[in-house]
Write a structure and sequence with these properties.
heterodimer; A: mainly alpha; ABC transporter involved in vitamin B12 uptake, BtuC; two-stranded antiparallel ribbon; 11 helices; 2 strands; 71% helix; globular; B: alpha/beta; Rossmann fold; 2 domains; four-stranded parallel beta sheet; three-stranded parallel beta sheet; 13 helices; 14 strands
Amino acid sequence: MPSATLIGQSVLSGVFIGALYGLLGLGLSLSWGMLRQVNLAHFALAFLGGYLTFQLAGRLDPFVTLAVTVPLFFLAGMALHWFLSRYAADMLNTLLVTFGLTTIIESAIQRIWTADFQRMESAYGAMRWKVGAFYIPFPEAATLLIAMALCGAMWALLRFTDFGRAARAMTEDPAMAAAFGVNEKRLGYVISGLAAAFAAVAGMCLALTHTLAPVQIYAWMGVVFAGVMIGGLGSAIGPLAAGILIGVSEALTMALTAPTWAPLVSFTLLIAIILLRPARF
Amino acid sequence: MTIDRRRALAAAGALLSTVAFPGALRAQGKPVRIGSSLPITGPLASLAIIHKVTAEICVENLNKRGGLLGRPVEWVLRDDQSKPELTRTIYEQLITADKVDLIFSPYATASILAAMGVAQRYNKVLLHTSFGIPKLAKYDMQFQTAGSPFDPENVWPNHIFDAAAKLPKPPKTVAIVTSKFPSVHHISVGAREVLKKRGLTNVLDIEYEFGNRDYGAIAQRVKEANPDFLWGGTNGIDPVLMLEAMSKIDYRPPAQVHLFPAPGPMLKVPAAQGSLALTTFESHPPFTDDPAIAQFVHTYAARAKEAGIPYTAVDLQSAIMYAAWQVLEAAVDGTRSLDDKTIAAWLKQNEVKTLFGTLRWNGPQNYVEGADLYKVKQLQQGRWVVIHPQQWAAPGAKPV
């Protein structure tokens, strides 16, 4: 019989990894749902953000590096949107183009930081709290709080502001939104910039909690894609909720059964939701 | 006979060059082309860079010594992207289009198996560095150069438990946590049997998929099982992630092994101190007693730094590549031939002294059963040192 500590600590572990899934999924969900761009390069950008954090962390606090990476990535996101719009890439072509961009970014990372594993050393790594029988590590807790704050802020932005109303109208019916004066072009740039900026934040969290290697760009794709689809395209809160659902399910699978079953969890959940709620897709 | 001034100067120049650069003059003519692939990109790239840097040093040294059969050596390297199916195509191309004289090892079991099939089709001898499941090596002209036994699933767990028995508190209970990565999984399956025969108790036995991202639940399961010894059937970065997850719940195994960890990142993990691992070579005496090997260690450190490799000491990976070139040179010199069948026949009847011991191929499937050249190392005060067997232990090093 598994102990309460095993189950509780595993749930916590799942919530923390799920928060990272959600944070990675946030930008992907926005660009896919609102701009009809399946941006595979989002993962490469997140890892590039992680490597830049790793590089800058020798001189700056990891959290302060965001002052450099976030604006930089916002511009990169706008540039990507310009490129995809310039050639009027449809959804399938955005997938292909951004896959190519992923391999370019991966090669650049490998060239600069080598294919070897890189670990950011930070005082935050050893910080943790004990609450009852459970341990809460600082980097993972910070990732959860950042994910909740960003997803919440994005949800509020889309729900309560003119920008959000215009973005949602553009997603529903671009022609009608344009007729009402929505500047689709400008909105596209801002959303693409925001999505890339979220990748920079996710990259900082990756560097705080994980060891970096270029090839790991691909290791996160499947589960984050599943999270975005379960959470709903264009949704700000959905990917985080789905990410935590997947993370907790994986962790409990590892705690209670053979850990080899854990990778099946995300896609099993996806298939179950497709079967139970087909209208959602 | 009269010698004019110009000829005399030319002869003196040639003589001087011979003394100053003996190899440069001897290595003449059409190069001996040796073809291989490495996973320069893809999941195995972090290890391939070590093999690439090592092989470049070996070829450079070989050419300084006069090459092979007096001809310079040219290494034709292709990137197999860590894909066995691509490896197969590359070896076909190397043999049929590039028309290399000899082929050489790719990296890791799956790619070597792919190259082995091609070698068999064209009757090419294949020296290989990193084949994890020897029983699958059925080809008659394949030869391992890593010092592995025919039965690593039996020999390596025994090495590790022999070393563990020398620890200040010899273990009685063991938790096996193994990745399903083929080679380490194969050894861990053997470990289950070995620990039973040695009277040890298995208190936890779990497997996880290679590439796992979250070790929180696994760490908690190990903590609750409370073993004397953690058997980590792990390689690459997995042990680092696993130990970090354990640190986050204030747990550290009393003793542990991780079969083939990424050596550099392990140094930075406090909980990894005291961890055991398998190796063939470490950069300390008695391995470095040979001046040529000491020079290689020195050169490798400089080249690895240039290449941006974080861990610059020669260890298992670079040593198995170096040994492969030692075997190739010995076999070609021994036969004075580039003929594959002649080289294969020579290897079966001879032995070759390498930087980590003497290799021979006179057992089943060109391996040796029940014996090997592997050692057990331990992470002590931020440095990997061999602790078992005693004749290869670092000076003054004791199991801690």
